[in-house]
Amino acid sequence: METDRYPDHPFSTHLNHEPSIYPPNPLMTDPRAAREAALAAAEARLRGDPSAVEREEKAQADKLAARRKKDEGWTPPGDKVDQETRRTFARLLDRGIIRDNGYRQALTCAETLLKIADNILNDPSNDPKFRTLKASNATLRNKILNCKGGHEYLIALGFRTHTIEFSSTYILEPRLKRMHELRLGRDVLEAHIPDLQKRVEQMKYSQTAHEKEEALRKARALAEIDADRDVVKTRVERERRLREYRATVDRDAQQRKKDEAVLVNYNHRDRGAPTIKEENEWGGSAGSEEKEEAEDDESDYEGLGGGRRLGGS
C-alpha cells in the first residue's frame, strides 16, 4: 500500500490506498456506501457471522452499481437550467467570496478554485489525486477555506466532505452531473477573474498614489516644522541681540556718568574749589552753623524789643 504517489502536488491526498484500486472499487468511490458497509461488517463480526460481511459488501456494491447505471443515463440539461446554474455560481462568487473578502484575497481564492477545476477537467486519466483534497493542506486552507465563501463554492463545484483516517477530506465523485456542474462553475470563475485582476491593479495603483500623497504630506509637514523652527531660532536670536544692545547702552550710560563726575572733580581741583563730594559734605555742616547763628540773632532781637516795651510801659 502506498502512502502518497504524488508528494509534490499542492493538493496531495496522502491516502493509504493503491490508485489502481480507486475509484473502480465502489466502496472507495462512494464514501457513504463505504461507511454503511463498514458498519454492517462490524455488526456482522459482532454477531460472529463472517458471511454476512460478504453479503453486505455485495449489497452495497449492487447499490452503487445501480447509481452508476442511473448516472450513465443522465443527459445534460437545457440551456435554461445551465444558465440558472451559472447564476447560482455567480451569486456564490459575488456575494460570498468577493463581497465578504478583499479583492486580493478573493482573486487568490478564485484562481486556486479555477486551478483545481482545470486539473480535474484536463486530466484524461481521471486520477483521484486531483479530486481529493485534504482540509489540512496548507494551500487549500490558506487560499480557499480561510476565505469566506470558499468552502461553499467547493461544495457547489461538486466536492463533498468526508472523514478519512480521522482527517476531513473534500472528495469529488466523477459523476456526469457533477462533472458538468464543475465545468459550469469553472467557466464562471474564468469569466470573473479578469475583472478581479483589474480591480486588484486599480487598488494597487490607488494604494501607490495614496502612499505618494502621504509621503508628500509628511514632507510638507516636516518642511513646515523646519520653517517654524527657523523662525523661532531667528526670533530668539533677535531678542538676544536686543537684550545685549540694551545692556550695552545701559553700561555706556553709567560709564558716561562716571566719566562726567570724574571730569567735574578734576576741574574743581584745578580751581581750588571743593569737589562735588566735598561740597555735599561741607554743605551739610555749614548749613547747620548758619542755622544756629540765625537762631541766636533772632533771640537777641526779641530780647531788645521786649526791654523797650517794658521801659515804655
UniProtKB/TrEMBL annotation:
InterPro entries referenced in this protein's UniProt entry, alphabetically: PUB-like_dom_sf (IPR036339), PUB_domain (IPR018997)
Region spans: Disordered: 1-29, 45-81, 250-313
Positions with biased composition (Gly residues): 303-313
Gene3D superfamilies: 1.20.58.2190
Alphabetized CDD domains for the sequence: PUB
Biased composition (Basic and acidic residues): 250-280
Domain of life: Eukaryota
Ranges for domain PUB: 106-164
GO cellular component, as recorded: cytoplasm
Biased composition (Acidic residues): 290-301
UniProt name for this protein: PUB domain-containing protein
